[in-house]
Amino acid sequence: MGKSLTPFRRKDAVPHEKLFPLPLRERPVLSAVEGVRVRGVVGRSHPHQSIGLRLSLWTSFALIGFMLAAFAAGAGPLDSPGAQKSLVCSACHGFAGNSPGNTMPILAGINAAYFKKAIKDYAEGKRTSPEMEPYAKYVMHFGVDDIAGYFAAQKKQPAKVKADPKAISRGATLATQCVQCHGASGEGDTDKVIPALRGQAAGFVQAQLALFKENKRKPEDAVLDENKKRILKGLDDNDFADLREVC
Length: 247
Fold this sequence. Notes:
This protein is mainly α. Helices cover 51% and strands 2% of the residues. The protein has helices spanning 10-19, 47-75, 81-85, 90-93, 112-124, 132-142, 144-152, 165-174, 179-182, 202-213, 222-233, 237-243, and strands at 29-30, 37-38.
């Protein structure tokens, strides 16, 4: 039948374990009594295993500390209730509400009252969004005031997007109609809960203009609603593309 198989020696197993490590509870260890390999038995670990485990733990702690420090530097103190609760929003809206994308709205520096109204509308289905509704309900449940206050206190960092100078010129002309409500610099109106447009993600602004024109979004104030309908009636998708460039 050929040569019989002989048990692996300890030195033979080390390279294999380095390449294919097993969970700690399944790793072979040397029994303190028998001095043989026993799988799944907790015994005296090899000195090198203890050193490796300690190094691995220290590396993990250092990595976690570095990540927390980086987040704190970009998103403010982590000990505030709003900062901790807002972490779930960062996957889409970026750390501290500064979305790096072109279509995801920037929450940093947002008017707190407007944020709370938008969240309430999403949660109640008044503002339709299958993606936002469950997150809006989370925010309402865990503390909309804390999260709104946190984002309002953050500094807005607009995404750097190269725009067409001609589109900017056309958009600036069209935007004169928006000054009455959104302000000369697009800063919005805190008292009337009108959002700021300056520095907002261009793709998001364009998408919202289209929703307003299609009457899929509308202000609760009847006068504002009529003004918006009047302004948007004569605009098309090309105009929206130009308007987005001046935000």
